[in-house]
Amino acid sequence: PQGHSSGGASSAAIVDARSYDRFSNQVILNMAELTAKKKLGKVTLKTSFAVGEMVDNLSGGGSHLATNTAAGEPTRNITQATLTYVATDRLSLQLGKFYTHMGYEVVNARDNWQYSRGYVFTYGVPTWHQGLVVSYAAVPGKLASNLYILNGWGGQIPGEANRKATFGLNLGWTASENLSANYNYIGGPELSDVSFRDVHEVNLTYNLSSTWTLAAELLLGKQTIPAGGEGRWTGYGVYLKGALSNNLTLSPRIEMFDD
């Protein structure tokens, strides 16, 4: 049921089970993204347009798949398009298309510790959504909350199987300048009105020193099957990042994913 798998195609040029860095010994345009932002008082408009190999992966397809489902996604090249209204210094509303809140790793490679994405992100969570986000700083500087009301699991219009909403939640806690934690959730009817999919994900980040940082992630997913029974997937990852010098960083990742 996962939103952006590698498809499992076999080829000498494709690294098995990889999605965002699957081609070996080839030079490709992975992704080029242009973002425009305009602020008008309390309202901010933001739009991102992207091209490249990764656009297909974000939309649930790719040239490695027998059926390129991404070709049927009308918003595939618009990776983000949002309207944000800041009601108060603690409350804001965002409407549109945006990247997912799920997972420790994120869509844009520059914001991750490794260029590749782990199996938890690749197979465990969706990549983007269409809907509404209500953000509230419960304790400014300490506890942030985001409530999501979404079209569906991954936002793909051609793949939507029902007219019921999917809900998401993010709770971000900053315990100190060295320790932070996030709880992420997404759940709603998928495949049919009577089939439910939900994922719980927790991640922690701890600064071991001024140059070394440790992070950990745990994910639990479940999909009920209309004919009876359920499917489950579980993943965890441990990440380490350290500056060896001003120009060299070491960042290993250890992970497990069971589907």
User: What percentage of amino acids are in beta strands?
Assistant: over 45%
Counting H and I runs of at least 4 residues, what is the number of helices? 2
Unreliable spans: 1-12
* Annotation, overall tally of beta strands: 13
Quaternary class: single chain
- First and last CA, distance: 10 Å
The major beta sheet can be summarized as: 13 strands, antiparallel
What structural class should be given to the helix and strand makeup? Answer: mainly beta
In helices, the fraction of residues equals under 10%
The topology string of helices and strands comes to: EEHEEHEEEEEEEEE
Anisotropy-based shape: globular
Look at the structure and give the mean pLDDT.
88
What is the radius of gyration? 19 Å
Q: Could you explain how this protein is built, in words?
A:
It is built from two helices and 13 strands; from the N terminus they run E-E-H-E-E-H-E-E-E-E-E-E-E-E-E. With 259 residues, it is mainly β. A hairpin with a 6-residue loop joins strand 8 and strand 9 (196-207). The chain is 5% helix and 47% strand. Strands 1, 2, 3, 4, 5, 6, 7, 8, 9, 10, 11, 12 and 13 form a 13-stranded antiparallel sheet that branches. It has helices spanning 53-58, 119-124; strands at 32-40, 43-51, 78-86, 91-99, 128-139, 143-150, 166-174, 179-189, 196-207, 212-224, 230-243, 249-250, 253-258.
Secondary structure elements and their pairing?
Elements lengths: L31 E9 L2 E9 L1 H6 L19 E9 L4 E9 L19 H6 L3 E12 L3 E8 L15 E9 L4 E11 L6 E12 L4 E13 L5 E14 L5 E2 L2 E6 L1
Antiparallel strand pairs: 1-2, 2-3, 3-4, 4-5, 5-6, 6-7, 7-8, 8-9, 9-10, 10-11, 11-12, 11-13
